[in-house]
Amino acid sequence: MEKDWKGSIVAEGLSDPTAINKFDIYKAGISEDNLPIDYEGNIGRWHWYDVKCSKEEINALQPYILRGWYAHFWKNDKIIVVYNDKQFKLDKNDKTTWKEAVKHGKAQGIPENELGFPTD
Questions:
Q1: 44 assigned to some structural domain
Q2: pLDDT by residue (tens digit) across 34-91?
Q3: 84 lies in a domain?
Q4: Are the C-beta atoms of residues 65 and 58 closer than 8 Å to each other?
Q5: Is residue 115 part of a domain?
Q6: CB 70 within 8 A of CB 40
Q7: 117: phi then psi, degrees, rounded to nearest 5
Q8: Most buried among 2, 11, 22, 93, by the most CB within 10 A?
Q9: Sheet containing 24-30: which strands, arranged edge to edge?
Q10: pTM above 0.90, yes or no
Q11: Domain span holding position 65
């Protein structure tokens, strides 16, 4: 299983945050305070992890992703955005390929400014 994808996962967006332990983590961080962490109005910090993984591991993560959250992964010019119910394949350099992924995220209540899918 070749771990040729990089990705970014937010622990608060998973039904079981320990699912992150199955990934090779190369960077971790904690956001500033006062960010929404659920649909009940609770606020807190986000714990994010940059990982290296295989396509199979990306697919295995999807059942853990909560509605209103996503994880995204990249390799070269390819980006995969994974929601709880759908995956989108994007071209990093062609923003027209992003439209459906952004639309889907907005429909789940994710603010558009959080749908930038940054890579390194």
A1: yes
A2: 888 877 888 999 999 999 999 999 999 999 999 999 999 999 999 999 999 999 999 9
A3: yes
A4: no
A5: no
A6: no
A7: 50, 60
A8: 11
A9: 24-30, 47-53, 5-10, 71-75, 78-82, 87-91
A10: yes
A11: 5-109
